[in-house]
Amino acid sequence: MSNVKVGEAGGISVVDFAPFLDGSRKQEVADAIVQSFKDIGFVYLVNHGLAQDKVDGMFDWSKRFFSQPMDVKMLAPHPADGAHHRGYSSPGVEKVVKDVFDADELKERRAKAPDVKESFECGREDDPYMPNIWLPDGVLSGFKETCTDFYWACREVLEMNFLRALALGLRAHETYFLQYHTKADNQLRLLHYPGVPVEQLKNEEVTRIGAHTDFCSITFLFQDSVGGLEVEDPNEPGQFKCATPVDGAVIVNAGDFLQRWSNDTLRSTVHRVRAPPNFASSVGMTPERYSIPYFCAADFNTVVDCVPTTYSAGRPKKYEPISAAQYIMERLAANY
């Protein structure tokens, strides 16, 4: 395992995914991934197979989109219904929190310390639950096509191979998770964090993204070089470590649904976005930040039970079977 784990960043393993992709050391890579998911719920992947120029191109288009005037971006508005995560959301509209489901409390928290970020979200074109909301034809031509291409590249290159590794690491059949992820019920999100006063972030007058967990199966996150992502230390609740950007890496984390699915074998860990570590500015402002998460969910209409290898007579199942739609839609609606 020492040869496939090539380092650490913020206590998170950096794993070389190439020996899985070429078949030379599949089980060792799978074991390293699962161990990191058990320890902290996150793992960095290098040599993950997705071409860097494709990643760089998506970041370039993201910057082009967010640089448009507000009236242009609002031509693809995110619906008021929080369960329909598609289209553009302006700064301060969303408030990401953990385990807060009361609408009045969410409203109060949003007013007290809004999330200063803007986002654009899309999924597969034939999604019956959440149809995409694009800019009108002729406005920022090429944006839709680039998003769609990147969405499917993440699906085929990252998600499918990572799910195989995850299954092997849990000592299940390599295709175990694939049968529950056949429809690409996923979400690509482009994120832009405008510069904000450092002191306001430190005093929590504003937030970038507050402490929360993801609620899907897995999340792939591409970061720019600015930094700011922090992951809670499982051994010291309330203490966070900086998940420093690693060149050429995608950082992957387990969601709440996967923790439940794995019978709590894997961790869905609290994380947040703050000011970059050790940042000092003569004007007192944080730099703007861009990131691209790709959220992967099990097929919405499929009911899943705990992974068979994660329970036994001595370690019984903790959860009843549930559909991804039932689980995820409740969480989406509660956090917007």
TrEMBL record:
Gene3D superfamilies: B-lactam Antibiotic, Isopenicillin N Synthase, Chain. Signal peptide: none annotated. Keywords: Iron, Metal-binding, Oxidoreductase. Residues 184-298 form the Fe2OG dioxygenase domain. This is Fe2OG dioxygenase domain-containing protein. Pfam families: 2OG-FeII_Oxy, DIOX_N. One of its GO terms (molecular function) is oxidoreductase activity. Belongs to the iron/ascorbate-dependent oxidoreductase family. PROSITE patterns: FE2OG_OXY (PS51471). SUPFAM superfamilies: Clavaminate synthase-like.
